[in-house]
Design a protein that fits this description.
about 140 residues; 2 domains; five-stranded antiparallel β-sheet
Length: about 140
C-alpha cells in the first residue's frame, strides 16, 4: 500500500522500497543489460587509458624533436645529418623529404623548419662500417 487512506499522502519508506525494487530488478533481461553496460564502461576506461598513454608518448616525442630544426638551420635536401641507426651513430645525407597529404606521401623540395611537418625522409647512410653507402627510408 503506497499511502494512507485517511490523509492521502505517500509513505516515504514504501516509495523508497518500490524505487529500489524497480532499479535492482532481478529480471534476467535486466541483468543482461547491466552486464553489457558494465562491459562497455570497462572497455571505455581501457580505451581512454590507451589514448591517454598514446597522447603522452606523442607529446614526449614532440618535445624531443622541437629543437632539431629552426629558421637558422632548416632541413634541406643534400644536407648531412647525424642519425641513430640501431645502436650505431651514423652520418646520413638527405635524399628526399615527404609530407602527408590526402592520405599519401607528397614530395617536398623546400627547406623545412618544423620536422613535425614531415612524414617520411629518404636517407643515404655514410658510414665506413657498412661496405658501401646504402639508401634507407625513414618514417617519422
Amino acid at each position: 500500500m503506497i499511502g494512507h487512506k485517511i490523509t492521502n499522502t505517500i509513505n516515504p519508506n514504501k516509495a523508497s522500497h518500490i524505487i529500489s525494487y524497480l532499479t535492482n530488478n532481478n529480471d534476467p533481461a535486466m541483468r543482461f543489460i547491466k552486464q553489457r553496460e558494465k562491459r562497455w564502461k570497462e572497455n571505455w576506461k581501457a580505451m581512454t587509458a590507451n589514448l591517454a598513454s598514446l597522447h603522452k608518448f606523442e607529446l614526449s616525442r614532440q618535445r624531443q624533436t622541437d629543437k632539431i630544426t629552426n629558421k637558422n638551420f632548416p632541413l634541406q635536401q643534400s644536407n648531412y645529418i647525424i642519425v641513430l641507426y640501431g645502436t650505431k651513430i651514423c652520418i646520413a645525407k638527405i635524399i628526399a623529404m615527404y609530407y602527408e597529404g590526402y592520405g599519401n606521401h607528397c614530395y617536398n623540395q623546400d627547406a623545412v623548419t618544423q620536422i613535425e611537418d614531415l612524414s617520411y625522409i629518404s636517407l643515404q647512410l655514410q658510414n665506413k662500417l657498412l661496405s658501401s653507402a646504402k639508401n634507407f627510408n625513414v618514417t617519422i
